[in-house]
Structure formats: structure tokens, C-alpha cells
Amino acid sequence: MTNRPDVRFLDRTTPPHVLTLVLMTGLGAMNMSAFLPSLPRMTEYFGTSYGVMQLSVSLYLAVNAVLQLMIGPLSDRYGRRNLSLACLVVFILSTLGCIFAPSVEIFLVFRMLQGAVAAVFVLSRAIVRDMVPQDEAASMIGYVTMGMALVPMIAPSIGGALEGAFGWQSVFWFLAVAGVGVLALCWVDLGETTKGGGVRFSQQFREYPELLASRRFWGYVISAAFATGAFFAFLGGAPYVASNVFGLSSFWTGVCLGAPAIGYFTGNYITGRFAVRFGVNWMIRSGAIAASVGLGAAAVLTAFGFASPFMFFGACTFVGLGNGMVIPNASAGMLSVRPHLAGTASGLGNAITIGGGAALSVLAGNMIQRGGDSLTLLVIMFVTSFLGLLAILYVIWREKQIGATIS
Fold first, then answer.
1. Dist CA 233 CA 358 (whole Å)
2. Which member of 145, 226, 331, 336 has the greatest number of CB atoms within 10 A?
3. Which CATH class is domain 199-402?
4. What is the pLDDT of residues 43-98, one digit of tens each?
């Protein structure tokens, strides 16, 4: 017996079809990764440095972090449908702005505005929670977030092929057309699901001190932040390494940039299969160990002269594997620390996680641009993953000392 509401595809008087939600999340993932193979060419086009051009990743992530705090209360007030449509319109217009930007500064402004599409991913999860009871939500969210796991495998390859054939602007034309398609689908299929109420900004802020006083909350947040940070460091430096260090073409750069997504898909499968049996702390620790060992071994081999694209990008699959095991379980841990503050914990925890990732993306891009190589980036990702491991080991120690129900 299920309480799932009646859903009719392409009928905006009913809740959206799962396909619509999958495409909403996929668009956000595509916008993050499709243009990455073009970063070195865009650096030349705008006559700037790679460190400045890489801000198109970190500034985008910073906008994403802010939206994590704002989007829930805003959608409670104005509705999931209205806010989703508005964010998609902003995304399409800002994508066109990226295409015609006359300078890197104007491009970066429009790139930040593109961050509106990240809100669509957040809203898709909120819509799921509106539609189905808690015991069905996790399963449905799993289907919805397939876009976040699968799109990064193919989007860089598509972007690299388009850039090689038609120039970097063609990647953003592709994103604009995809945005128009998703907007049209949401217009005819995305029915309103919110029932009003929710948490206001003032209430969120009043709840922050209780969360911030919890050491276990910080442990889970830091473990997720460093796991995510390793991936964002990859995004910040890997396009330069592929193009300028290994001399790969735009197409093969795009193919190689999909390496972490393979590990992420595997990590998500392991989480789904074993999280209930072994618990979130065990899963987080195992994922952090896997990432640290894989990246550490690759760094040692590279230092001894075995550097190659296969070595570097093969090692980066461990970044994705660690993310697939750490992030879902750390997110569950954040929510379990103070169950009555689950919504606030989700927004605050994700904002800190993504904000930290943005900072590591800037660090990686700048260090690579200042004469770094594949070893530099491997060391950054290894140190980041290892710090995430230390964070979850602290949580485990803390629970053994004072009990899992105490801060």
C-alpha cells in the first residue's frame, strides 16, 4: 500500500513525473562539468591566467553554497514550481550572457548567475519529500539523483567534442538549449507540491547555535567538506593538467574528466548495498581510507617518475569512490545529530561543505597555474581526503567516549 500521489505525465495539475525531476538534476550536473575541457582555451580567448579563469568553478560553487541556505525557505513561501521556473529562466539568460561576454570579468558575473540552476537540484529533493512519505523518499531520491552520478561521465566528453569542433561558445549554446528544453518540460509537467508552512529565515538562524555547538555535527560536516573538497580540487586543476601537462586534446580531456564519476557511481552502489548493515560511520571511514590510499599510492608512484594520464586519472576514480561512500552517509549523520533540526542541518551542512569545496578549488587552480603538475594536484587531493578521514575518526572516538546521543 502506498501514499504516493496520482502523477500524470505532462499534466501540471499533478506532481511532476520522476523523469522531469531526473532531468532537472541532470541539467545542474551538466552545467558544472560540460565546459571544463574548454577552460584552457577560454583562458587564451579572454587573455587572462588560468587561475582567474578557474574562478568560473569556485565562484559558481560559492553561489551554490549561499543558495543551500536560502532555497528552502524561499520555496516554502513562493512555491516549488514558481521558484524552479524562475531559476531556469535566470539560468538560460545567464548562459546566453556567458556566450556574448566581452571580457572575463563579465563572463564570471554571468557564470555566477548560472548558479541559479543549482537551486533546481535542491528543489527536486524538496519536491520528492512533498510527494511521498519518508520511507519512500530515499528510494525516489535515489532515482532522481541518478543525473548527478551519470551526467558527469558523459558531459565533459560532449563539451570537449563541441569545443574541439566549434569553439568553446558552442558548449554554452548546448547548455542554453538544454535549459530551454527542461524549462518547457517543467512548464507543462511540474505541478505545485508544497503545502505551505516550512521554516522561515529567522527560525533557521535561531537554530544555528544548537547545531554549531555539536562536535559530532562538525565532525560529519568536515568529513563531507574534505571529501567534496578533493573532488572540487580536481575540478579546479585537472583541466589544466590534462591540457597543459599531458597535452591531451579537448575531447580526451573531456573523457578523462569523467573518471571520478565512475568511482562515484560505484561508491553510491556500495552505500546502497551495505550502509544499513555496517552503519554510516563505518561507510564514511572506509570511503575516506579508499580515497586516501588510492591517491597516496598514485602520488608516490608519480614522484618516482611514473607520471602518465592513465596513472593520474585512474587514481582520481578513488576521489569519486570516496565521495560516493562519504557524502551520503555524512549527510545522514548530520541529520541524525539533532533530528528535530534536520532541515536546518541539511542547509547549513551543505553550505559549509560546498563553501569549503569552492576554497579548495581556488587553491588547486592557483597552485597548478603557478608551475604545479599532476603530482601537485595528487598531493592536494590526498591531504584533503586524509583530513576527512581524521574527522570521521574523531566522530567515532567521540561516540565511544560519551555515547551517540550526546554532542
1. 8
2. 226
3. mainly alpha
4. 999 999 888 888 888 888 888 888 877 776 777 777 788 888 999 999 999 999 99
Could you tell me which of 26, 17, 21, 27 has the C-alpha nearest to residue 179? 27
Q: Name the packing angle between helices 116-131 and 55-78 (round to 10°).
A: 40
For residues 245 and 248, what is the distance between their CA atoms, to the nearest angstrom? 8
Contacts of 251 (CB under 8 A, 6+ apart): 37, 157, 160, 161, 164
At 135 the pLDDT is 44
For residue 403, give Cα distances in angstroms to 276, 393, 407: 20, 15, 9
- From residue 397, give the alpha-carbon distance in Å to each of 8, 31, 123, 158, 301: 50, 39, 35, 45, 33
CA nearest neighbour of 55 among 232, 250, 227: 232
CATH superfamily of 14-194: MFS general substrate transporter like domains (1.20.1250.20)
Instruction: Tell me the pLDDT of the chain averaged across its residues.
Output: 82
**Residues belonging to the chain:** 407
Write out the residue limits of the CATH 1.20.1250.20 domain(s) in the chain: 14-194, 199-402
Cell numbers placing 115: 548558479
